[in-house]
Amino acid sequence: MILMFGICATVILLTLFINRMITSWHRDTIKAFKREEASLRGRHAKAMEEQKKALLKLRRVKIQITNYERMVIDRRMKKGE
Predict the structure, then answer these.
(1) DSSP, residue by residue, 39-79
(2) How far apart are CA 79 and CA 50, in angstroms?
(3) Which pTM was predicted?
(4) ∠ at Cα 38 (32, 44), nearest 5°?
């Protein structure tokens, strides 16, 4: 009887120890994922900002090209070509 009680107590203690190890690992994993998520969100925001800047720059270049093309067409019209 005492031997069974000792074995049961050992199994329960071992189970509690394993449960604590798994819980600790799970908590650490969640913390790591949250840090990674925050990092990825920051990188995404930075990439979006860079993309917006590039788009604005492309729009300005397109407007300049359009203006130069119109200027060339106007000069040709004035020269009678």
Answers:
(1) HHHHHHHHHHHHHHHHHHHHHHHHHHHHHHHHHHHHHHHHH
(2) 43
(3) 0.60
(4) 135
Residue with tokens 């799970």: 26
The CA–CA distances, whole Å, from 71 to 6, 52, 60, 81 equal: 97, 29, 16, 14
Written as six digits, the tokens of 7 are 């074995």
* Residue pLDDT tens, the chain, 81 long: 888 989 999 999 999 999 999 999 999 999 999 999 999 999 999 999 999 999 999 999 999 999 999 998 888 888 775
